[in-house]
User: What shape does this take?
Amino acid sequence: MTDTGITFPHGTLSDAAQLAADAPPRSFASFAVRPLKPPPGQDILPIVYFAVRCASCDNDAFHIGSYPMAAAGPSVGSDVPPEEAPPCPPHRLRCAGCGGVGSIFDPATDGYDGILCGGRSYQKGEREVFTGGAFNLHVTAVYNIGLPELQDLAAQAGGGVKPSDLFDWFNIFGTPVGDDEFFQADYECA
Ligand SMILES: [Zn+2]
Assistant: This one.
C-alpha cells in the first residue's frame, strides 16, 4: 500500500463493521467503494475504512466539496480565504477524471441521525466550494451500536434501510495528489 498518511488501526472488524464491509452504507452509493482489510491485531474494530473510486471512470482522485464558513458572508470570518476555512458538510466529491459529482456525506440524510432522527444540523457556509487540488480518498463508517440492535433499528425504519446505513460516525481522509495539506474531517451522526 502506498503511503496514504493515514494510521490504520490493527485488529478484526466487529460484526457490524464486517456487515458494512460486505454491504456498504447507501450514503456512499454514488461511488465505487472498496473496504480495506485491517492489518492483523488484537482489537475488535467498530470502524471500516473504504477506498473511493469513481463509479463511471474508475479514477481515484477527487476534488472535495464543502460549505466553508468563510463563504457565509462578510460577518463571518471574512478575512479567511475559503481554502483555509474549516470544511463544513454536506460533502460532495468531483471526480478529477470525468468531472462527475456525487454526494459522499450529508448529515441531514446520512447515518443514524440522518435516517432515524431527521438529520443532524452542522453549521455551514452558504456556498459550496471544491478544493483546487485533488485527493485520493478514504471514508469510514463507525458502529458503536451492536449488530442486533442495528438490525432491529433498520427493520423498524423500513424503506430498505440496511444496518450499515446507520453508522454513528463518519470520517473522510484525503491524501493530496499534489502539494496540498492532508484533508481530514469527522462527524458524529448519532
Ligand atoms: Zn470519473
Summary: Residues 15-188 form one domain. The radius of gyration is 17 Å.
